[in-house]
């Protein structure tokens, strides 16, 4: 049982990251038929949807691309900002997908935004409470830590539909606007699906860890009785 837990908690996230990097590296070498850069693709989608007030900025790092809902900015890593590849188009379109969600007040995105401060608190303080509870044998501290962690796990789960929906929006946009050809849809989906694996892996690990802690808590409760 411990071996299975170890495999999931350690190997699965590593495998997901390697899959993302490998897929990205492969399709970063293949230019899209439109030859648009990631910045140009993002701008085309934004303008087509009336999001003229959303800006695009270059940011440092590898695969550091994201949408900032507070500043209304799509930030693309240098390789995707300047790149003409299928990977650059896919990732740029995905981040613009989040801007479209923001524009339309997408339900799960609103929930995720609402959960951010609570999830941050849960991530920062849950393990402190859990360790105190486990080391000192204080079940109330352990339970409180588990509750904080459960909120963080909920955030992970809400993130899944947000990311999948952004990818679906991205595919619709890049095809309808001619950023990629119909023959390039399969390769573009591979980039987006590989990226989604990291969120699925994170959610799986979080749930498994939460279950393990709940089992520890119930075991401590039985010992007290």
Structural write-up:
- A 3-stranded mixed sheet has the order 1-3-2.
- Helix 2 (38-48) packs parallel to helix 4, helix 4 crosses helix 7 and helix 5 (107-136) packs antiparallel against helix 6.
- With 225 residues, the chain is mainly alpha-helical.
- It is built from 7 helices and 3 strands.
- The two termini are 26 Å apart.
- The protein has one domain (2-224).
- Keywords: Membrane, Transmembrane, Transmembrane helix.
- It comes from Niallia taxi.
- Pfam families: Zn_peptidase_2 (PF04298).
Short description:
This protein has 225 residues and is mainly α.
Key phrases:
single chain, 225 residues, mainly alpha, 75% helix, 6% strand
Q: What's the layout of helices and strands?
A:
Layout: H1 2-27, H2 38-48, E1 55-59, E2 66-68, E3 73-77, H3 78-82, H4 86-103, H5 107-136, H6 139-176, H7 185-224
Parallel strand pairs: 1-3
Antiparallel strand pairs: 2-3
């Amino acid at each position: 049982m411990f071996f299975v837990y170890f495999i999931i908690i350690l190997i699965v996230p590593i495998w997901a990251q390697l899959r993302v990097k490998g897929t990205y590296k492969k399709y970063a070498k293949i230019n899209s038929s439109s030859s648009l850069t990631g910045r140009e693709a993002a701008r085309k989608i934004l303008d087509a949807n009336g999001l003229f007030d959303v800006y695009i900025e270059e940011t440092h790092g590898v695969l550091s691309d994201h949408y900032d809902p507070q500043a209304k900015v799509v930030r693309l890593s240098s390789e995707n900002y300047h790149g003409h590849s299928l990977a650059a188009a896919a990732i740029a379109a995905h981040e613009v997908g989040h801007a479209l969600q923001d524009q339309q007040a997408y339900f799960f995105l609103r929930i995720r935004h609402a959960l951010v401060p609570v999830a941050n608190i849960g991530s920062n303080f849950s393990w402190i409470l859990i360790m105190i509870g486990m080391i000192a044998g204080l079940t109330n501290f352990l339970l409180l830590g588990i509750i904080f962690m459960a909120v963080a796990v909920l955030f992970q789960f809400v993130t899944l539909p947000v990311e999948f929906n952004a990818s679906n929006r991205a595919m619709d946009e890049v095809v309808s606007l001619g950023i990629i050809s119909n023959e390039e849809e399969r390769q573009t989906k591979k980039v987006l699906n590989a990226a989604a694996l990291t969120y699925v892996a994170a959610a799986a690990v979080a749930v498994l860890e939460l279950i393990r802690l709940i089992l520890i808590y119930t075991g401590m409760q039985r010992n007290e009785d």
